[in-house]
Amino acid sequence: MDLNSLLKQIQNGGYNYSNGGNWYTGGSNGWTGNTGSGNTGSGNTGSGNTGSGNTGSGNTGNTNSGSNSGNIGSGSAGNTGSGSGSTGNAGSGSGSTSGSTGSGSGTTQSDFATQVITLVNKERAAAGLSALKSDSKLTQVALAKAKDMYNNNYFDHNSPTYGSPFDMMKQFGVSYSYAGENIAKGQQNPQAVMTAWMNSSGHKANILGGNYSSIGVAYYNGVWVQEFTG
Fold it and tell me: Hey, which residues does 51 pair with through a beta bridge?
């Protein structure tokens, strides 16, 4: 692959999905270097793209509401890794971010996931949106994805084990008309990862997605995953 193709791949990416079954790719992704001595936020966050490099101590990336993982883009390293995605259909999206690695016990992991859902619904209420309901199957998907990224040492919406976020949801028996995924890595607590996601337009679009009604969240050894469906 020549340099131009590589750069193009890093700057564009993501998936969109709608009930009509059409897929779209594209998006504006960004990955800028470190600003000062840290990465953006205190970790990375990405729902797709529009990521901007670092501000703080982690990288952020974004995924729009389009090419985010579900409809929502999927992020890949660099941009997707740290955030990649593009806008798309009735957007659902996915994104990613990376930062320093955190850790947590089983109890802390469960508590962190619950706190993230509370913070998500607080943001939705402020925007005049209905609360998302925690879904047990989506929670299983989120935890399996977080463990898969950690155990296989990758940071991307596409899993070498399960495939795309949408393929993975289907494997876990999840049905949907709209779906999206946000991923992040390195934030030390729920507020830090939510701040990073909300400061990224792509991730924010997923969190405030009007087409979503259910959510599953997981935290595992510094890796954060949000799964959305509607």
Answer: none
Quick one: pLDDT at residue 109? 85
- pLDDT over 80 at 168, yes or no: yes
Task: Name the percent of the chain lying above pLDDT 90.
Answer: 52
Task: State the residue range of the domain holding 214.
Answer: 99-229
Give pLDDT tens digits for 103-124. Answer: 344 446 889 999 999 999 999 9
pTM: 0.63
The whole-chain average pLDDT of the chain stands at 68
32 within some domain: no
Give the separation between CA 9 and CA 5, rounded to whole angstroms: 6
Q: Total domain count for the chain?
A: 1
Q: Which amino acid is at 20?
A: G
Q: Is residue 182 part of a domain?
A: yes
Opening angle at CA 94, ends 92 and 95, nearest 5: 145
Report yes or no: 62 and 200 within 8 Å, Cβ to Cβ. Answer: yes
Whether 83 maps to a domain, the answer reads: no
Cβ contact 96:224 at 8 Å: no
Q: Residue 181 sits in a domain of what CATH number? A: 3.40.33.10
The encoded tokens of residue 87 equal 């806008």
Say how far apart CA 71 and CA 149 lie, in whole Å.
21
In a domain, 177, yes or no: yes
Contact 94, 48 (CB under 8 A): yes
